[in-house]
Amino acid sequence: MEKLQMKDNCVSSRGIYFNTGGGIQLQVIDIKHKDYIGLVSADTAFWSLVKKTRLGQALTDSSFLSKYRKKEKSFADEISALRFGLKPSAVYFNPTDRCNLNCSYCYIPERLRKYGKHMSQERLMQALEILKIYFKSTIPKGRIPQIVFHGAEPMLNKKSVFRAIDKFREDFDFGIQTNGTLLNDEEIKFLTSRGISIGLSLDGHIREVADRLRKTWDGQGVFNKIVDVMNRLRGYRNYSVICTVTKENMSSLTKMVDFLHNIEVPVCMLNPVRCTLPGGRESKPADHQLAKYYLRALDRTYELYRKTGRRLVVANFANVLMSIIAPNGRRLMCDISPCGGGRCFFALSSSGDLFPCSEFIGLKKFKGGNIFKDDINEVLETEPFKLVTNRLIENIEPCSHCAIRHFCGSPCPAEAYEMNPALSKKTLRKSGVNGSLEKPGAFCELYEEQVRYALRLIADGKEDAYLWDGWDKGISTSLEITKL
Asked: For the chain, is the Cβ count within 10 Å smaller at the N or the C terminus?
């Protein structure tokens, strides 16, 4: 990768400058660093770090302008391919509607979690056979599509799920996202012996915090059971823990990081609560408060890494960091526009209904079809799916002129739809569902602060401590002005 050496000559080529006329648009952003400031091309997601004392020189240097122009098309092509060129490679598969917990913030409607049905073993096998055939047309040779058994609680339909895993082990890369309460030694052995990715959920470092919102239907907490499962998984590298962050637990995120690191969890997600349903919105913390505690927790992961040499990767922040360093290396597709829903993955309910994402299960307007009745390719082109895949950040205010819009993507469309009921009936009649989709999701300020934090890490050379082992394999820098 080339690093630009700044020169003192000024731009002299017939009025071609940065930020005027037909010149390249570079926005200056304060990253709250004592020495460096950010330069970002919002359209191409190009970024650079410049010493504050050299900013004027950077914006008037013809060498930089010339080199950027040579790379600009490749930057634009890369972000365009990421946004519009991908095909589905994963399915979030709900083998049951039901859950044995009644978490107050859950995005799946209570009626489904309480009275829903299991998918029969025969139907589950049939669905996977259909998906196997479908993915042969979308997945490059040598790659395997991913199936994540999701919820509600997939372990309530354990027998069918486990038989499906064994039958289709060569065809899919399987994962299971579970609350963990139904995992015993036998189930853990089954999953780990087959290398299945396991995701658990835990919302606090102690029972008094974790059990505030995650409870059984009769109001009992499950903290001790989940910690027991985590101890049994110690040393298994293919598992992670999701902590849903609410106003009930945000002040203890640093302690949560300590707890997860101590119990040797390799990867966690500190997921701001989804605000799709009223329960989630009621537990939503204020952005500015959450950002403060969130960044402190990220600081703590770095301190622990320096102390022990062992990472605790916060996957959703790591994805934001990767969206800056190497956009094609990101592993999650929520923080880009359009998001991954209906484009990189889709969701399958227990009745076989197809939705752009699990967040939309329960919202009938976003059902695109049924896997047992409809062609998947045709479902992907239906209006419910297109409403999501055509949701562009360029049409959302204030996101359309935000410098970091391609590091965020204004998630989540399901949140945006459900959080904007105040749109007048006249507006909805005129613009339809899309009128409420073209609004920001939740936690704008949190994303802003994560991006600034990520750029500070890069300026200080600390990014490696926050990312997965081997994250930089095959990655090279295209053009950068930094440490000048």
From this structure: N
Question: What is the pTM assigned to this prediction?
Answer: 0.91
Name residue 210's amino acid. A
Per residue in 159-186, pLDDT (tens digit) is 999 999 999 999 999 999 999 999 999 9
CA 427/CA 435 separation, integer angstroms: 7
- Between the alpha carbon of residue 104 and those of residues 193, 212, 217, 278, 405, the distances in Å are 34, 9, 10, 9, 31
Angle CA(228)–CA(232)–CA(236) in degrees, nearest 5?
135
pLDDT digits (tens, 9 = 90+) for 331-359: 889 999 999 999 999 999 999 999 999 99
Read off the pLDDT of residues 411-445 as tens digits, 9 standing for 90 and up: 999 999 988 875 544 444 444 556 678 888 899 99
